[in-house]
Design goal:
Blueprint: E1 9-17, E2 20-25, E3 36-42, E4 52-57, E5 60-65, E6 80-85, E7 91-96, E8 101-106, E9 110-112, H1 115-118, E10 126-132, E11 139-144, H2 146-154
Parallel strand pairs: 2-11, 5-7
Antiparallel strand pairs: 1-2, 1-8, 3-6, 4-5, 6-7, 9-10, 10-11
Length: 178
């Protein structure tokens, strides 16, 4: 038997968060390192604006990665939820405003983000981008890395640079000094 040649494309689902086009790579075989999209559902009413939540849905616990919590101002809870299962059997939910689209990205269009930019990409959750030529400006998709998303959303919020947490509050006076 001849081995099946590797495909020259990567299947992804695409969606937008905070005006940023994102792509989530999909599993392509039994030993794939990518998640499996289980389904897209209407968001349960129990979701809120917290970055990480635990949702019990049907017979499984779903870790909600609310990417919208990183954008300001806070937006309404998106009406759809992408349910994915990772190779280690964890289930994640990603709230989105519109149903995602399925797309096949040619591998030649995918490139790693430079490490210095990967730390500063719009949401801090991608290590690769795909640049797709089209009429006018090319379409740039950031490939979402679920592990990085979990790390970013697990971090406590930081104050703007140069400000201490108490910045903007009136100065306190030591009651023992005159």
């Amino acid at each position: 038997m001849t081995p099946t040649p590797a495909p020259d494309f990567l299947k992804v689902i695409t969606f937008t968060v905070a005006s940023q086009p994102l792509a989530l790579p999909l599993a392509q075989g039994k030993d794939s390192p990518f998640p499996v999209v289980q389904r897209v559902i209407h968001s349960p009413v129990s979701l809120n604006h917290h970055p990480l939540q635990l949702l019990h849905w049907e017979d499984q616990d779903v870790i909600i990665l609310n990417l919208h919590s990183l954008s300001t101002p806070a937006q309404a809870i998106p009406p759809f939820l992408i349910l994915v299962q990772t190779p280690n059997q964890e289930c994640y939910g990603i709230p989105v405003s519109d149903p995602p689209s399925l797309l096949e990205l040619p591998l030649a269009t995918i490139r790693p983000l430079p490490p210095s930019y990967a730390q500063r990409d719009p949401l801090g959750m991608a290590s690769y981008i795909a640049v797709l030529p089209q009429s006018g400006d090319p379409l740039i998709l950031f490939l979402l890395d679920l592990n990085r998303a979990l790390q970013v959303l697990s971090q406590p919020p930081t104050p703007p640079s140069g400000l201490s947490p108490a910045a903007g509050s009136p100065p306190t006076r030591d009651p023992f000094l005159l």
